[in-house]
Design goal:
- This is L,D-transpeptidase catalytic domain.
- Residues 79-95 have a biased composition (Basic and acidic residues).
- GO terms for molecular function: acyltransferase activity; peptidoglycan L,D-transpeptidase activity.
- With 429 residues, the chain is mainly beta.
- It has three domains: 13-132, Immunoglobulin-like; 140-241, Immunoglobulin-like, CATH 2.60.40.3710; 245-388, L,D-transpeptidase catalytic domain-like.
- Helices cover 7% and strands 37% of the residues.
- It contains four helices and 29 strands.
- It has helices at 28-35, 169-176, 346-355, 384-388; strands at 13-16, 47-51, 56-59, 65-70, 73-81, 89-91, 97-100, 109-117, 123-132, 140-145, 152-153, 159-164, 179-184, 190-193, 199-203, 213-219, 224-225, 229-231, 234-241, 245-250, 255-260, 263-269, 280-285, 288-296, 306-314, 321-324, 342-344, 361-365, 369-370.
- The strands form six sheets. It has a six-stranded mixed β-sheet, with helices on one face. A six-stranded mixed β-sheet has the order 22-21-20-28-23-29, with no helix packed on it. A five-stranded antiparallel β-sheet has the order 1-2-4-7-6, with no helix packed on it.
- It is elongated.
């Protein structure tokens, strides 16, 4: 999935239409008659409070139509621009506001017409007209959605949004409110922020079910962020979850176990990072796949080389990969010789490329160092309770993990939200 103290606030505009008895003459006999049983007092009409306020100016193009109803429910919302053209919008799940399907345009006037219907059937309709701000001259926070439209991912793929510069703590709640995720079938989850605000990840308590459709919108264009910045653009994507594959890498045995749908399908000898450049132990996710790429470690303390590698799969922003390493095949299964990567044979690396997808779970255990949270897609590197604590907004109480909160790599998936990434490196080795 932390309040934006500096976010522009708008005065609430409330119009309450209440039915009042019309008294003509006010004779005593009529008053007694009205008090008799069987003459019910007319039900009061509902009321509605709208935001932005009527005639508000300099409204951010990320604005939503807030409609707080009293004595009834919102039954119709119509948003139009200054040429009378309708603007599509969808309600939030809690009904607190209607979110335009795309950012509003700068320096344009919009009218929202909202109807509220009470239990008695009486209705109240209220309008508010507001004008959006001119195009902002403040610097933009660059955001990147690490989910590509029409792609198929592994069952552990979190929805990830990266930010440059990082989002300050006081702004994260407002940013998170503009990160939308829908899944079919429904598998509700939450967002969680890394400590420095460079990355927010979204997942459910358990793995996605194979075949799940994930629709995401990072609706940040024009959103005030902190004191000086605004969001850069909206990102949208709809992707699908494929079959379940996971990799379990054990430094003790120097073996990788490959599971598909919970069944072991192959063991592969590996060579991990040598003591001076150890591999990270933790639960990761395959982030990228390259048929061929270049590792350049000339800027690293223990590096200094440039090498082309085949069949490489990224595990961390810091440059840990699974890749083909024909030069270390004699050591694989026995000794660690790499600069932090998982070395496998050329044949095994090519086979893995045909089996895995971005979003497949990878667990490494028994090495000298632990994986840093946020160094890659690390949503599964902590328990659900720990993950949920990273949300800038309250987590729905119904979201609870299964008894096995920390997944085993061989478990079957399924169960009960462009900036360069932080510290991204192709150092590898």
């Amino acid at each position: 999935m932390r309040n934006m103290d500096v976010r522009q606030r708008f005065t609430l505009f409330a119009v309450t239409v209440a039915a009042a008895p019309l008294l003509v003459g006010g004779c005593t006999a009529d008053q007694r008659e009205a008090a008799k049983p069987g003459h019910a007092k007319p039900a009061a009409a509902p009321s509605v409070t709208l935001t932005p306020a009527d005639r508000a100016k300099d409204v951010p193009i990320s604005a939503e139509v807030g409609a707080a109803a009293s004595g009834g429910k919102v039954t119709a919302v119509k948003l139009t621009d200054d040429k009378g053209r309708p603007v599509p919008a969808q309600p939030r799940e809690d009904g607190s506001s209607w979110v335009p399907a795309r950012p509003l345009e700068n320096s344009r006037t919009y009218t929202a017409e909202v109807t509220v219907t009470g239990d008695s059937g009486r209705t109240t309709t209220q309008k508010t007209t507001f004008t959006t701000s001119a195009k902002s001259t403040r610097p933009a926070v660059t955001s990147n959605l690490y989910l590509t439209d029409n792609q198929t991912y592994g069952t552990a793929m979190p929805v990830v949004v990266g930010f440059d510069p990082p989002i300050p703590k006081e702004a994260r709640a407002d940013v998170q409110r503009r990160l939308f995720v829908k899944t079919d079938p429904p598998q509700p989850g939450t967002w969680s922020w890394d400590a420095d605000g460079k990355q927010a990840e979204y997942r459910a308590p358990d793995f996605w079910k194979p075949g799940t459709k994930i629709s995401v919108r990072s609706g940040l264009e024009g959103l005030p962020i902190g004191k000086e910045a605004v969001g850069d653009t909206d990102h949208t994507a709809t992707a699908k979850v494929g079959r379940q594959v996971s990799l379990d890498i054990d430094n003790g045995t120097k073996q990788m176990s490959v599971y598909q749908d919970g069944k072991l399908i192959r063991r592969i000898p590996v060579s991990l990072g040598k003591p001076s450049t150890p591999s990270s132990s933790g639960t990761m996710v395959i982030m990228e796949k390259f048929d061929r790429t270049t590792f350049d470690t000339r800027g690293d303390p223990n590096g200094g080389y440039v090498v082309d590698v085949d069949d490489a799969q990224r595990l961390t922003w810091g440059g840990e990969f699974i890749h083909s390493a024909p030069w270390s095949e004699g050591e694989q299964g026995a000794n660690n010789t790499s600069h932090g990567c998982t070395n496998v044979s050329a044949e095994a690396a090519h086979w893995l490329m045909g089996i895995t997808k971005v979003g497949d779970l990878v667990t490494v255990k028994g090495t000298e160092v632990e994986l840093d949270q946020g160094n890659g897609f690390t949503a599964w590197n902590v328990s659900w309770d720990q993950f949920a604590k990273g949300s800038a907004l309250p987590v729905p109480p119904g979201l609870k993990p299964t008894p096995s909160a920390t997944p085993h790599p061989g478990s079957v998936a399924g169960g009960s939200a462009p900036a360069p990434a932080p510290s991204r490196s192709n150092t590898g080795g």
